[in-house]
Amino acid sequence: MIEVSNLHKSFKSVKALDGLSFTAKDGEITGILGPNGAGKTTCLRTLYGLLKADEGFAKIDGITVKEQPLEARARLGIFPDKFGLYERLTAYEQIDYFASIHGLAGQAKKTAIEQIIADLNMEDLAHRKTAGFSQGQRMKVTLAQALVHQPKNFVLDEPTRGLDVMSTRILRNYLSTFKEKGHCIVFSSHVMQEVAALCDRVIIVAKGKVAAQGTPQELCELAGESLLEEAFVKLIGSDEGVAA
Amino acid sequence: MIQFKALLIKELKEAFRDKRALLVAMMLAFMAPLVIFGMSKMAIKEMVSKPPIYVKITGEEHAPKLIKKLADENIFSFASVPAEDQKLWDDRNIELNIPESFAEDMAEGVVINVTLRADFSEQSLNTPLRRVKNAIRDYSREIGYKRLLVRGIDVRLLQVVNLVEQDTSLPSSNFMMISMMLGMYLLMAAFMSGLSVAIDSSAGERERDVLEILLCQPVSTMKIVLAKLTSATIIALLGVVLTLILTSVSMSFVDLSKIGASFSLEPMTVVIIVGMLLPLCLFASAVQLFFSFQAKSFKEAQSSVTMVIMLPVMLPFAMNFMDSKPQWLDFIPVSGQSLIMEDIFKGLPVDWFALMATTVITIVAVAVFVVGLTKKLQSEKVIQSLS
Question: Helix, strand or coil for residue B206?
Answer without folding.
Answer: helix
